[in-house]
Amino acid sequence: MLTLLLASSADSASVNLHDAVSELDVWSSEEVLEHGVLRRHLNREVHLLIIDQLHIYADHIDAIHAKAIGQTVDEVLVLSRHAAKSGIPSLTVHAIGVPGEIPHGEVGFAGGMKGTAVPPSPRFASIYRALREETEASPLAEEFDVSLETTHHGPVLTAPTLYLEIGSKESEWRRTDASTLWARVISRVLGLESTTPEGEWRGEGEVMIGFGGGHYAPRHSDVIIRSGLPFGHLLANYALVFDEKTDQEPTGPWRHSLCEAVEKTRQAFPGGRVFAHLDRKSFKGWQRTAIAEELARLGVEVRRGRDFIS
Predict the structure, then answer these.
(1) Model confidence over 2-44: pLDDT tens digits?
(2) Domains of the chain, residue spans
(3) Which of 148, 154, 193, 235 meets the CB 3.0–4.6 Å disulfide criterion with 239?
(4) Cα–Cα distance, 126 to 174 (Å, whole number)
(5) Could you tell me which CATH number the domain at 206-308 has?
(6) Roughly what angle, to the nearest 10 degrees, separates helices 176-190 and 124-136?
(7) Which residue from 17, 70, 71, 94 is spatially nearest to 48, judged by alpha carbons?
């Protein structure tokens, strides 16, 4: 299984993270390829690639890299900045895609293709939990928030992908203590220091997807932490757009967004039993009903937190 760690020289946090990861353990010398500069881990199937283009616009970089090296890229972990108007120092992780944007097929506002999601890496839960644990055990716990984000932005990729981020402004993007902590998380989850890798999908088990709520998914985060289950796409309300209620089934792109999140999560977790958790208070009653009916058609059970948290 080949993991591509992708960085961009157009993003200062990405460069900072790239440098922190490159100081871990043992890597090959640099190889200058047509699409970027590559270093290969000497003990694990992990590639560290830095490109000139801003990563959110680097469509199909997984396929480009695979063709250049003659290997399949099995997952992509993108090293990135996180920007927020709040300016709160933060460490975030999220899946990518813009399933709620329209018209479908056009370039998204921040990369990606409108109406399309990318499969999330099955390591999503393991990375999030490792990030929380490593932060809580460090001095950064007093300063940095650790957060999930819901699915958003590009690029368009085929391989299961996650964004690993430092936020929320330039002063944090360049902080080496934050990048060093992320490097520890990456090393732990990928098993770079001869440890057992975490979060590799074994082909069976339950997988949660989440619908509704705000961008930082507080309700979903809570049940994820308490359940210990793997999870895939998390879509905020803004990605589930309903037209006004009528006497007929509600129209709008919400149904397509649901289907896209379910399909791409199933691709990432073959053999998994996907179920849905709703942030119920963020929907009107008729919206919850419509979502539940559509998910039932897709063979996805809607469950409350109390149903799967012991």
Answers:
(1) 999 999 999 999 999 999 999 987 899 999 999 999 999 999 9
(2) 3-190, 206-308
(3) 235
(4) 25
(5) 3.40.50.10700
(6) 130
(7) 17
